[in-house]
Amino acid sequence: MSNVTPAVVLVAMFLASGPQTAFALTGYGGESERYDFEEKPWVEEKTVIPDFPKTENLIEFAVGPTERNRFYVDGTTISIGADGIIRYVLVLKTTGGAINVTLEGMRCATRELKLIAVGRSDGGWEKILKPVWRTIENKLVNQHHAVLNRNFFCPSGHTPRDSAEARTALKRGKHEDAPG
After folding, report:
1. Residues 49, 61 contacting (CB under 8 angstroms)
2. Cα 147 from Cα 71, distance rounded (Å)
């Protein structure tokens, strides 16, 4: 058996494995049309507008030591779509007493954000007519979106498994995979 080379053993294993293996190995060449290697185009789901946030459902999150405004996410509005978008209601309370309420969508895979609707003072919503995806930037002022992305919702660039994971990260003060 000393005259048997590794190549002979490999050919013998290949032939013994049957016609399925031979087809699979030759399939990459002339028969590649039998395989579906194309990625499916990403399709965004339609957003369902949630109820207006209630104070008892707000989860505060820290943005940074120099930020004077206070930021909250309504934990009951966090949803993860099959399209990979995490949707949530953000509440911003300024030091001057103003309150801004927005319905937003975040794509962890592309680090983008979209404003979907703005809360009105009467407790209703005003939908954005042509919402646009924008890159989340880590700015010195109003960096709450970058903090939400990096520390709570998308620390590893992946969408949370479910809304409970995102809520837990907010309540804990940081996602378990967040840096630092």
Report:
1. no
2. 11
Helix and strand counts by DSSP (H, E) for the chain:
4, 7
What whole-number distance in Å separates Cα of residue 75 and Cα of residue 81? 16
Mapping DSSP to helix (H, G, I), strand (E, B) and coil, where does residue 115 land? Answer: strand
Angstrom distances, CA of residue 71 to CA of 19, 59, 94, 97: 62, 8, 9, 13
**What residue segments make up the domains of the chain, in order of their start?**
1-38, 55-172
- Which CATH number does the domain 55-172 belong to among 3.40.50, 3.30.460, 2.60.120, 2.40.128? 2.40.128
Burial of 6 (0-12, 13-18, 19+ CB in 10 A): exposed
For 120-171, write each residue's pLDDT tens digit. 999 999 999 999 999 998 877 668 999 999 989 998 888 888 999 999 989 9
**pLDDT band (50, 70, 90) for residue 179:** low
Report the alpha-carbon distance of residue 111 to residue 106 in Å, rounded.
7
Q: Token digits for 169?
A: 């990260």
Indicate the average pLDDT of the chain.
82
- The partner residues of 91 in beta bridges, in order of sequence, read 72, 101
